[in-house]
């Protein structure tokens, strides 16, 4: 059974090519929603942290561990601050792409992890049963959304229990969150399994739900599931939904929220309006942090979780503008044929968190959004070229150096 759901972790856009390739013509949706956001321009880097704070390497001390859950183990990514702790923890749950769940890559929500590590948290990201390299098979439960959520939540419970025994975790300060299918999973966890973990203080739901187009009345199934969860959740929760979400259209998000709260469940809905071309990508974008973190910070303070910045954490930094050419001078981009120039024109239509890379042999790639479009553009270009790829443009600037021998790369 093919269940059409979504994974925000794949929210960036990219295109690449050799001499014969043609990229997509417009951002998905074809409209620029960013102008209405009450936030700094996309692509800006936050001001530097207090230089007296200890620094965490840009790798965020990332490790991959196996968490036991009944007869299997869960492939789990852990990001953490330096030191022995104990640290507060967020367990963050991924969404689902169409197709075989084992084909999904290991989830790495870098933008979210960077912000929480900056504030002294350990970020734990379990791939649930049947996903990526976790054992077992995906627990779909047919069209029964409520049962699906509870099945997913068992893996969250196993993760919370296992990590709470680790010496670097403060088991009295835990929050559980998730995006898309993972947002529904977080709420389902709060409705049943959270009772066994008194250190869990709250739930965060980013665009949560489960879309099953092949199930008749899937919207009603989804709304009813949230209603059932709301009868049992005793933890406060914070919900994020946007008006141009490609998955939850019309008034569905409001219906889910109403069904959840009408039984007395405590929840706060944040309607953040339109985000770029699709509100469903918010948490997977570094640009989205400036939208959700202020609300999350206030929520964490309300439930007794720490909110002060504890570490310096480096972020992707673009090379400096070189003045080689104006950004919109398509013919100035070196080494491209007509297909590559078409790709560059497409790049110019993307949102301003973007990067375009090219090699001497004419391979090229652009990327927009996600955590680090510079690295994505370079890596995608390099897959098509035996010559080194270099960044030509980042955000609104041309960063190319002509015949200098300098390779323009992203730095942190």
UniProtKB/TrEMBL annotation:
Keywords: Hydrolase, Signal. InterPro entries: AB_hydrolase_fold, FrsA_esterase, Xaa-Pro-like_dom. Transmembrane segments: none annotated. One of its GO terms (molecular function) is carboxylic ester hydrolase activity. This is Dienelactone hydrolase-like protein. The keyword Transit peptide does not apply. Residues 1-25 form the signal peptide. The keyword Coiled coil does not apply. Residues 70-190 form the Xaa-Pro dipeptidyl-peptidase-like domain. It comes from Caballeronia choica.
């Amino acid at each position: 059974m093919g269940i059409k759901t979504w994974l925000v972790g794949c929210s960036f856009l990219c295109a690449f090519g050799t001499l014969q390739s043609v990229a997509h013509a417009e951002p998905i949706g074809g409209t620029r929603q960013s102008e209405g956001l009450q936030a700094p321009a996309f692509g800006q880097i936050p001001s530097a942290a207090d230089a007296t704070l200890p620094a965490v390497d840009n790798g965020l001390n990332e490790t991959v561990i196996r968490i036991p859950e009944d007869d299997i183990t869960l492939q789990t990514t852990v990001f953490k601050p330096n030191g022995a702790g104990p640290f507060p923890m967020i367990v963050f749950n991924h969404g689902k792409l169409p197709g075989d769940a084992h084909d999904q890559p290991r989830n790495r929500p870098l933008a979210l992890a960077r912000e929480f590590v900056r504030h002294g948290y350990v970020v734990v990201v379990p791939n649930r049963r049947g996903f990526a390299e976790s054992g077992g098979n995906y627990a779909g439960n047919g069209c029964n959304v409520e049962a699906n959520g509870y099945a997913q939540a068992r893996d969250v419970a196993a993760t919370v229990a296992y990590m709470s025994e680790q010496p670097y975790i403060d088991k009295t300060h835990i929050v559980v969150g998730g995006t898309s299918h993972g947002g529904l999973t977080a709420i389902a966890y709060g409705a049943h399994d959270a009772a066994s973990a008194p250190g869990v203080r709250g739930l965060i739901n980013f665009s949560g739900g489960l879309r099953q187009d092949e199930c008749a009345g899937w919207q009603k199934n989804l709304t009813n599931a949230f209603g059932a969860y709301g009868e049992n959740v005793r933890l406060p929760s914070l919900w994020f939904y946007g008006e141009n979400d490609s998955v939850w259209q019309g008034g569905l998000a409001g219906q889910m929220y109403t069904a959840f709260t009408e039984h007395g469940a405590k929840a706060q809905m944040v309607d953040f309006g339109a985000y770029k071309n699709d509100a469903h990508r918010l948490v997977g974008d570094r640009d989205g942090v400036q939208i959700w973190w202020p609300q999350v910070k206030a929520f964490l303070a309300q439930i007794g979780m720490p909110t002060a910045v504890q570490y310096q954490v480096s972020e992707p930094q673009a090379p400096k503008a070189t003045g080689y050419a104006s950004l919109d001078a398509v013919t100035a981009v070196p080494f491209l044929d007509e297909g590559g120039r078409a790709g560059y024109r497409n790049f110019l239509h993307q949102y301003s968190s973007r990067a375009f890379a090219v090699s001497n042999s004419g391979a090229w790639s652009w990327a927009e959004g996600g955590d680090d479009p510079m690295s994505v553009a370079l890596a995608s270009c390099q897959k098509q070229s035996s010559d080194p790829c270099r960044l030509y443009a980042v955000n609104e600037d041309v960063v190319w150096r002509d015949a200098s021998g300098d390779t323009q790369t992203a730095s942190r």
